[in-house]
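I hope you will forgive my troubling you with a question about protein structure. I should value your view on which stretches of the chain appear to form regular backbone elements. Here, with my thanks, is the record as I have it:
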Amino acid sequence: MRSPFADDPGRASDVFVTLGSLAEERGTDAAGVALLGGWPGLGHDGCRVVKGRGRFSAVWRTELLAELDRAPVAMGHTRWAAPGSPADAAGAGPMLVAGPGPKSAGIAGTHDGDVDAAALRARFAPSAPPGGAGGEAILRLLAGRRGSSRVTEALEALVGRTALAWVDRDRPTQVHLARAALSPLAVAVDSEQNIYWASNPRWFRVVQRYTRVRFATIVMLREGTYMRVGTERAPGRRDRPQVLAAASFVPAARPADRDDRVWAGFTEADRDRDRATLRHRLVSPDLAPVA
């Protein structure tokens, strides 16, 4: 998410592309990019999504760089095809999901992890129709939810590994970030107040070695954290991105979700610090709490 006060948009763009390449550690079956900003030139009513099979570095195209430099918000994603086929890039993020009514533009978002989509469909049938990837079911559930309490109600219903980033396309200057159970999510702010997020805090330290950007803050979100960041975009004002709302909730995971591969690519110190803060509740496959 860009700060309107950044002197050179190319610096944040360099970080975005570098993070995309580093994210290949966590998926090379498919990848994608979403550029959001409300300009007709981006297509899709101000949201352009490009995704395909293979690595992020193969899906990313240099001709997108000018649009990336202009986009207030950009999201990237890499994916192992589980569930789904590596040949099907449609299951990759970022995904566009329709809103709950004809006047809603819907949301664009990404999901890392593996959730019990059947349980979502059983509890929220209208919001999570049969078929599609687990990430799509989650985004459908979140579409149209406003306010921290309504969002965390949905997040508490998830069972499985989950980290999310999404944008309500009716409010394209704000990004929602959530870490439920296990799947890691780190947030960084650079010296110009651009905001970034990624699955591994180490990547931000690598970025500082290979780009012109220096980070003022790098934070690993604790399980059960939801935040909304961005600007209110008042007419005639240029606001720095900031935390607009934050809430905590108790996430849920299945016993099989607790796997050290969650921290693949982490340094030992980063892994140990994060493991010491875990607070999810365990739920059996039949959704009965585990004693």
